[in-house]
Design brief:
Distance between the termini of chain A: 41 Å
Strand order of the largest sheet of chain A: 1-2
Number of domains of chain A: 1
Mean pLDDT of chain A: 89
Strand content of chain A: under 5%
Radius of gyration of chain A: 25 Å
Largest sheet of chain A: 2 strands, antiparallel
Order of helices and strands of chain A: HHHHHHHHHHHHHHHEEHHHHH
Oligomer: homodimer
Low-confidence stretches of chain A: none
Chain lengths: 738, 738
């Protein structure tokens, strides 16, 4: 099949993104890194971050090799999988890690430079930090689309299948690449999340409480680990996470398009359905870059003005993307281009609403967080109760928004043919519309991730300023930059969660289509339904497969799957919460050992072994991350082997429902506790050091693993479980107990 | 149709239960209430409890009248509902309240008597408290079965419908009685839960912190409210809750039996399916009484021996019930009596496993709670993190257990005909087996609730001993009694949660059957399925209805329902958590006012206005409980009107999945925090007053609304939503947007 020339927009856009990222990176590198002390501290953090990556990659490499060997066996030994699968899986993991690596490298170079720029002015500081954040945003989307176009071209050339099955095979193989990205992202998020919170708690407990030295003091061996943690958790972890979300939404929609339109007979229609999400993403990249260049601010701008100028960039990009979508889908000539364009807008709009809601429930400019801060008057217990209460209530609007978006995206795609909304053709079109909405929501990622990644850079700049003994006015400026970052980070989390829900739905639909491939692979060409009628597997609809496998809400295996899925989210969160506790314990022991064994460390004459401390904590985090992450891979396979297709679908739906809501709850409760503390630090309710402040510090500490470890990992969990189910669909179809 | 003579076992068993309860009650009343001071305090608590009930009943009465008028309109105005529905609804609420009222009355009489008995010996104290607990257990099951038999006889006589539809109409009308019980229970649990925690926090904050007087000091106007709270939350609330669970499981299974076997043609078969759950419950009552009489202990028995003698009673009852089930189902002559008997045993066994798991995760004899206590060394934040982590992990075994129970109960009921497990007849039989398993799990309620209700009585006895200034050795004995109660309470919560999950599944199945009635009511006699075939509504199977309404996991309206259902659990918990905070605030203001306005209150010369304080707090609790409780009624109706049958089924499944898991998490985390504090109070990690103790007090305070307000309310929420959906099925079928 000929690749239409419009496709080349996809690799072109990705190369433009990478080029612009390179320009921003070079400019940032040319900035002055400040005093000797600032350079030294930045170098320690950089070294520590690399130490983390070394250890992380060792563990993840083993996991990837084992899984790749398994896939290689399936492909070359058993002959039941595409020979490209092991490679696609490996490169997905590799590029996901690479996006995190580049983001982290940029961040570790940018922190001292931001602090130094903040010595001159608030505005200079913002510029350096935001540009560095933009590097990360553009690298993620650039690498993402580059890999997608690369694999599309490779597989298009080397896939030796005729007819509509060709694109199905191509997109399915590409989903393995998505599974690689998800696996890497889960490890990065969970490992990084455990690491950053363990180092944080460990540094505080031994340094501040036992040795009595101030926070961020360079004599504390865990201080560097603490700063490294911000980089590995909030930068590398988030980079891999959003890389996975971005690719996941495009790949899931493409796979759904290929599979759903395969039975429709028209290969042109099918090809367009595969290309549409890539093109929307490509246009999104280009217009995000335009938005980034629009973020300009005059010398001495106020915080409100800064926030507004960031908003101008994001909103302008969104509006342009919305307009451009109509054009690109029209040019592509896809069936029902108008309806699908409105599906994209539904996704864009839902993302904005969720972002705003997140801000409302987590910013101390609004009542919910102010009430949490006020509850500190009666101690830490009421802070926790208020935060849990507010966080749980905050799930309502995002869930309803996603619900409305799902229905609207579906209906737009089928031209509001409500009466026949479940007929095979409409079902495929409608579900495809939901996938396209997810792509729409993430199309602004180039710029939203820039504002998002800017946060931890500003945070680290503050740490650098403190450790280097820069003046209080510099620290005040970095604090202001940090506060701005908190607000934008909230929006970013909203996008990640919302898009995960939509993407998971698209993956669920892809799973049903995968069953066809699984059946054909197992030599089944005809289905006999319970009413005695038969269907050719090649021509059967999604609903036929579901009827064949009794995927009904009355089937006890579906219901058991729903229960297990709902439980998985909680179990996963519980395991990661406890892991933070245990890893912090290892850190405490290591710091105590160094204080005991390295001479002159407290007088400043001996140098603490930062790297060793970082490595110990990293190893702890890596050990702790293995079990929960592997669980996410093993459970869908196990449920499939016992309960078959019906159980797996129950599992995915149950996991999606409770995982989505739990993720919103944890992210918002954590964010609100953080900002309630910040509000008191700004002087309300007694200010820093008061009993109220101490009460909110407890809330903040509890919120840390909520918002930075368990909560964001859930987004990846629900997608990874779906991708595992898809990749293993052939096995499930071949053997299951029920 | 003739009522078979075996039916009379049901009212007979209920009358035996009530008679035994009366005997225990009279014996308890003959015990000495102790010193003048003890009587006085008990009288205050009793008066406060009555003040609560007055206020509670005012609010609930209004809600019931509005709903009953609405049902009356549907029955007499629109003519679309059975004329008995409004009355059934009202009596369900009335008897549920009555069960709570009797339990509370007994508890308020028993507390001083238990304290007085504990002055003589530990054993005497246990006897008085346990017998009083047994009153509650027997009243709940006795009233429950009495009402069920009463309505069955009334409706059997006055229902003017011929053929298999008669039993369907009877059992559906009886489900309205279940909805009344659920509504009352939800108000009792939420209101009582908010009340008890608000009074607790309010009394502590003003009394201990501001006025500097010790806990349980009679000068504190909120002290009585605090003790009243234990009665209204843990006794009246739990009584109404378990009354609802008990009746709910029997009614749901009976309705499912009637509906599912209506199309099978045999009215005898149908009648037997309706009577079986009632008979199992009746046998359970009688054998529970035997178990209660077995709870004897020799003078001066150790704690371990006491616990063992309680265990002997429960286990003996369970074993006898298991055996008797085979006999009773054989005598009834129900189809597949052997398989169904094994379904009952599945339920019984699952209840025991869940109870044991709950004990493992909440008792400080085991590692999880010990670790939470140990984490107090690093402050309150790590206590919260450890508790949340452990609570989330604790969901795994109960969920898997219920999953196994669902599948086993289903398969036992269909004779392990796995290959045809989804054929219409097997589907009805299998789902009925799940309902029967829920009845089996709750069949031991007479005795398990006795051990459960014993807890708050022992707790109140301790309060009375403290306020009356009894010696430390008495307080030590009441503490020991209290600790025993904590362990048994954990088991009781496990039963309540597990049975809720199974009952909700039975209700879900009943809902599908309700659609038939709804369609017939709306004059629809034939369905045209998407494949063009038609079915007579009278003969259509459950799966036909689901196909007709597109209840498929690929239908976006189902998925939106799942999301909203999952969110409802969180929203409901968030609202009730926040309500506790706000109600505590009102209490604080009232206590401050009394200190200010009533002269000589702090010198002991003026008497605080206990009743006013109780009323203020009650009114606060009542105001706060309205919104979340009404939400549970309104949302299923709204989802039905917008998204139709498919949306409602998604809602129920989503709510069930996440509600069940969330309830287990909250109950276990709360219980573990409570016992971690108790462990430290017993002298570990520095003991009472240490920093570790303070840290666990924070955990305990956070856990209070988890385990006593939000968590247990979820059990009711998921069933109430199902019952509302069932009662409103006719409306949903008649008008919906999608």
């Amino acid at each position: 099949m000929n690749t239409p020339s419009i496709f080349w927009l996809v690799p072109a856009a990705s190369l433009v993104a990478l080029a612009v990222a390179w320009i921003f990176y070079s400019r940032m590198k040319r900035e002055d890194e400040g005093t000797e002390r600032m350079r030294e501290i930045a170098a320690h953090v950089r070294k520590g971050a690399m130490a983390y990556l070394r250890q992380q990659y060792k563990v993840v490499l083993v996991v990837f090799l084992v899984l790749a060997l398994f896939f290689a066996y399936l492909a070359y030994g058993a002959g039941v999988q595409n020979p490209w699968v092991p490679f696609a899986f490996l490169t997905g993991g590799f590029f996901s890690g690479l996006a995190g690596f580049f983001g982290m490298k940029t961040a570790t170079y940018a922190s001292a430079r931001t602090a130094n720029a903040a010595r001159q002015s608030l505005d200079r500081g913002l510029k350096v930090a935001f540009r560095s954040g933009a590097v990360m945003g553009l690298v993620v989307v650039g690498l993402g689309l580059l890999d997608i176009s690369f694999w599309y071209l490779i597989l298009d050339r080397f896939t030796d299948v005729a007819g509509p099955q060709k694109l199905v095979v191509i997109t399915t193989t590409m989903l393995t690449f998505g599974m690689g990205a998800s696996t890497q992202a889960l490890f990065a998020r969970v490992g990084g999340g455990i690491y950053t919170k363990a180092a944080d708690v460990g540094a505080d407990l031994v340094g501040k409480v036992e040795a009595g030295i101030p926070e961020d003091d360079p004599r504390n061996p865990a201080t560097i680990a603490d700063n490294v943690g911000d980089n590995v958790g909030d930068v590398a972890g988030m980079g891999a996470d959003l890389y996975e979300s971005y690719c996941g939404s495009v790949l899931a929609t493409a796979a759904l398009g290929a599979a759903a339109f395969a039975s429709a007979g028209s290969e042109t229609l099918q090809l367009k359905a595969v290309l549409a999400p890539m093109l929307i993403a490509a246009v999104g990249i280009l217009l995000s870059i335009v938005g980034i260049f629009l973020v300009r601010t005059k010398e001495g701008a106020s915080m409100r003005e800064l926030l507004r100028s960031l908003g101008v960039g994001v909103n302008f990009s969104s509006a342009l993307i919305a307009l451009a979508t109509f054009g690109i889908l029209y040019l592509l000539g896809i069936e029902n281009w108008l309806g699908l364009s409105f599906s994209v807008i539904t996704g864009l709009a839902a993302g904005i609403v969720i972002g705003q809601t997140t801000e409302y429930y987590t910013s101390h400019s609004y009542k919910p967080t102010q009430k949490i801060a006020g509850s500190a008057k009666t101690g830490p217990a009421t802070v926790i109760i208020a935060g849990v209460g507010s966080g749980m209530i905050s799930t309502a609007i995002p869930v309803v928004t996603i619900g409305v978006a799902i229905v609207l995206a579906y209906l737009c795609a089928i031209g509001f043919d409500i009466e026949h909304m479940m007929q095979p053709h409409n079902l495929s079109q409608g579900l495809y519309g939901i996938g396209i909405a997810a792509v729409g929501m993430l199309s602004t990622l180039g710029i939203t991730l820039a504002t998002d990644a800017y946060g931890p850079i500003a945070d680290n700049a503050g740490g650098n300023a403190e450790m280097s003994g820069l003046g209080p006015e510099v620290r005040k400026r970095t604090d202001a930059l940090d506060a701005l970052g908190n607000t934008t980070a909230a929006t970013g989390k909203g996008f990640a969660i919302g898009s995960a829900a939509l993407t998971a739905l698209a993956l669920l639909a892809s799973y049903v289509e995968e069953i066809r491939i699984g059946l054909l692979h197992n030599g089944v060409t005809e289905l006999t339904l319970s009413d005695g009628t038969t269907r050719l597997v090649e021509q059967a609809s999604m609903l036929d497969f579901m009827a064949y496998y009794n995927v009904s809400l009355m089937n006890p295996t579906v219901l058991v799957g729903v229960f297990i899925g709902a439980m998985m989210s909680f179990l996963f969160c519980g395991l990661t919460m406890n892991a933070v506790g245990r890893a912090a314990e290892s850190m405490v022991q290591e710091v105590r050992r160094q204080f005991r064994e390295i001479r002159g460390i407290l007088t400043g004459e001996g140098t603490p072994d930062y790297a060793r401390c970082v490595e110990i904590s990293t190893r702890g985090a890596q050990r702790e991350m293995l079990f929960p992450s592997l669980l996410a891979i093993v459970v869908p396979v196990a449920v499939g082997l016992v309960f078959g297709v019906a159980g797996v679908m129950g599992l995915l739906v149950g996991g999606l429902g409770s995982g989505f809501v739990l993720a919103v709850f944890m992210a918002n409760a954590g964010g609100a506790w953080d900002n309630a503390k910040k509000m008191i630090e700004e002087g309300h309710f007694g200010g820093k050091g008061s009993d109220c402040h101490k009460a909110t510090v407890v809330g903040d500490t509890v919120g840390d693993p909520f918002k930075d470890t368990s909560g964001p990992s859930l987004n990846i969990l629900i997608k990874l479980m779906s991708m595992v189910a898809i990749v293993m669909a052939g096995l499930t179809v071949a053997c299951h107990l029920f």
